[in-house]
Amino acid sequence: MPINRRWFALLGIGLLLALSSPLTSGEADTGNKPLQLRVLSYNIHHGEGVDSKLDLPRIAEVVKSTKADLVALQEVDCGVERSERVDQPRELARLTGMHVVFGNNIRYQGGDYGNAVLSRFPIARHENHPLPALREGEQRGVIEVELDLPGSAGKLLFLATHFDYRSDEEERLASVRFINDRMAAQKDRPALLAGDLNALPDSNTLRLLEAAWTRANEKVLFTFPAEQPTRQIDYILFRPASRWKTIEVRVPDEPVASDHRPLLAVLEFAR
Questions:
Q1: E strand or H helix at 260
Q2: Domain ranges of the chain
Q3: pLDDT digit string (tens) for 182-198?
Q4: Bridge partner residues of 192 (DSSP)
Q5: Are 66 and 40 in contact (CB under 8 A)?
Q6: What residues contact 252, with CB distance under 8 A and at least 6 apart?
Q7: Which residue stretches of the chain are H helix?
Q8: What is the pLDDT of residue 33?
Q9: CATH of 33-269, one of 3.60.10.10, 3.40.50.11290, 3.30.1330.60, 3.40.1670.10
């Protein structure tokens, strides 16, 4: 029965090759292998660059060039007169091919203004929380987004925010306490926080924040002003520290599209 013997031999070889071949992404769950995430924080100045040109596609190209998985955007317009009534969150989602949520914090020029999150991963839920307002001025907020990560990685909490800019730190400190209090009951839950915090690395705001979070970059990376940055006021942070490893953090060389430069962190997440 030579044909049958040959057939069984070929079948055995095929099974051996199948079992020994590495699985590519999407073919099967990667088990406990760490997941690498590319996280971007970007204050887009409602799409207006330092050249005074309103150019939202330019912002989208900056985002796409970083190959980001998660993006925290600040100073985003939706139906606002100065930005030609464009629904910027929806348009950026269309231009980048990502999911989007928008957190409106104030009404402005007939539209809404606030923060947004772009994600390559499905969004399970989202909620926009007003941050403490201690005096008259712009209402600030933090978007809380729960994401479904691929495979067995589970869910991730992603917080995107923009703190008060005034020299007195009290409102920024109140914002940190609000965020830390929300996370206190879920201290072991994987979470990322990204945004324009309007605070320097050695400020009380960052010291209080880093009591509960770990900054992605130990070395200071200047993000503002865009043309010749001299300060870091944009950040990406994570918790718990034991679940994350920083692979790379950098400031993409983009001096024109906004008055801030974006901040990109490549992070490894242990399942």
A1: none
A2: 33-269
A3: 999 888 899 999 999 99
A4: 158, 238
A5: yes
A6: 62, 65, 66, 261, 262, 264
A7: 2-20, 56-65, 88-96, 170-184, 204-209
A8: 83
A9: 3.60.10.10
